[in-house]
Specification:
Number of helices: 18
CATH architecture of the domain at 359-454: Orthogonal Bundle
Low-confidence stretches: none
Strand content: 5-15%
Radius of gyration: 32 Å
Mean pLDDT: 90
Helix content: 40-55%
Oligomer: single chain
Strand order of the largest sheet: 4-5-8-9
Largest sheet: 4 strands, antiparallel
Distance between the termini: 85 Å
CATH class of the domain at 359-454: Mainly Alpha
Structural class: alpha/beta
Shape: elongated
């Protein structure tokens, strides 16, 4: 293969969509795998809808993901080039100025139409095989409003020709655009590039992914706290399969494994739960390699929580939250997930302060013997009092109490132990809770439970 040249050509009429990012990624991976060039071309011929802030969002989003262009162009800088080709088409008779009857007030009375040769054409799509069209049904289609105002089909063909684009890798929704573009290519003497129309990204209801399904822009996933490595990894697997069991990839690994021939035809369903899992795996990699501090997101989560609950969280509470997230493994989640986890766990109700509860809650299932529960509580207090501070971890706490719990009945011992610490039917296991609360607070709560049982 000669040096392939590929492009992604978004319109700056909105923020970078996850589908556009996936298209850009497939082009980027293909170019890098084959020592080619990846081009970013901003298609801003729609002057009314194109905004500079959207262009900036697109470029920043791609750069955040690590998709860095080798060349950059804007259609608004290329007006004279389109004008030259339009004149050429008009002079050759391949296009003509069409007098239009305005359907509504303000409509144009003149446009430039392409003279359709009304022929059958086909192309061999790398993903979909041979695709055939009868162009007769297209009629003489509009390619410009005037010499100074080219429309999409004319501009995209001219750009691809001038930039030497060898492969056009884009969404399957562009298949219907291909016959018009093939006709224009012939008319201007351009070579036909190779096409690969990749499957659309679908929501769980198998409709096209849109805002009604939740987050759809790259910026939204960035704000939630997803890692760029995870987003890249996940969207690469939407419509492409490496043919192995491997699911976690670095960008370099994706470049090495990518093959257009392994892109599937069927639509790819976006599953945020899978993205969360992949994000967690990448976070583990980065933490283990020392590239990120797991506490960074946790501090941000605590600050977010402070703003949401509108109350103060003191330093001791912060330390406990840090331990909760570490013990639960939630410190490897996104900031948003950490905040949700803390709120849904009821953590702020029972960790900063001694929870209230009726003594009956300390009874395990149908047990009615409060003296027996009191004996277990006091034994827990005795065992944990002897455990050194430096060994007050969930694993060491479990090792210290397990023989006694197994002998007396794990439910009868561990249920009141957990309730004494949390006051709740549902909470983390008592070993983790004890580590989170610390030795002093754990023993205080066991004393509180013991005093309840004296009443």
């Amino acid at each position: 293969m000669n040096e392939p040249r590929v492009r992604v050509a978004p319109s700056p009429t909105g923020n970078l969509h996850i589908g556009t990012a996936r298209t850009a990624l497939f082009n980027f991976l293909f170019a890098k795998k084959n020592s080619g060039r990846f081009i970013l071309r901003i298609e801003d011929t729609d002057k009314e809808r194109s905004k500079s802030e959207f262009e900036e969002n697109i470029r920043n989003g791609l750069n955040w993901l690590g998709i860095i262009e080798d060349e950059f162009y804007k259609q608004s800088d290329r007006s004279e080039i389109y004008k030259r080709y339009l004149k050429k088409l008009l002079d050759s008779g391949s296009a003509y100025v069409s007098k239009e009857k305005p359907k509504e007030e303000g409509d144009r009375e003149e446009v430039i139409r392409f003279k359709n040769p009304n022929t059958s054409i086909s192309f061999d799509d790398i993903v979909r095989g041979v695709v055939k069209f009868d162009t007769t049904e297209l009629g003489d289609f509009v390619i410009a409003k005037s010499l100074e105002e080219p429309l999409y089909h004319l501009a995209v063909v001219v750009d691809d020709h001038e930039m030497g684009i060898s492969h056009i890798i884009r969404g399957e929704d562009h298949i219907s655009n291909t016959p018009r573009q093939l006709l224009i290519q012939v008319a201007i003497g351009a070579k036909h590039p190779l096409y690969a129309h990749i499957p659309l990204i679908l929501a769980k209801d198998r409709s096209r992914l849109s805002k009604r399904h939740g987050a759809v822009s790259v910026e939204e996933y960035k704000k939630i706290g997803y890692l760029p490595e995870a987003v890249i990894n996940y969207i690469a697997l939407l419509g492409w399969n490496p043919g192995t069991e491997q699911e976690i990839f670095s960008l370099e690994e994706l470049i090495g494994a990518f093959d257009l021939n392994k892109v599937q035809k069927g639509g790819a369903v976006f599953d945020e739960e899978k993205l969360k899992w992949i994000n967690g795996e990448h976070k583990k990699r980065l933490i283990d390699s020392g590239k990120i501090d797991p506490d960074t997101d946790t501090f941000e989560a605590i600050n977010t929580l402070k703003n949401e609950i509108g109350s103060k969280i003191n330093k001791d509470d912060e330390d406990k939250i840090m331990r909760l997230l570490k013990v639960s493994g939630a410190n490897k989640s996104t900031v948003t997930e950490q905040v949700v986890f803390i709120k849904e766990s009821g953590f702020m109700d029972y960790v900063p302060k001694q929870p209230g509860y009726e003594k009956e809650k300390l009874l395990w299932k149908k047990e009615k013997d409060f003296d027996n529960i009191k004996r277990h509580i006091n034994k827990m207090k005795e065992i944990l009092y002897e455990l050194p501070e430096e060994k007050f971890t969930s694993d060491d706490i479990k090792d210290a109490v397990w023989d006694y719990a197994s002998k007396e009945g794990t439910g009868s011992v561990l249920w009141p132990f957990r309730v004494a610490l949390s006051g709740r039917d549902k909470s983390p296991d008592p070993f983790s809770l004890a580590e989170i609360l610390g030795k002093e607070e754990t023993i205080k709560r066991l004393i509180f439970a013991d005093n309840k049982l004296k009443k």
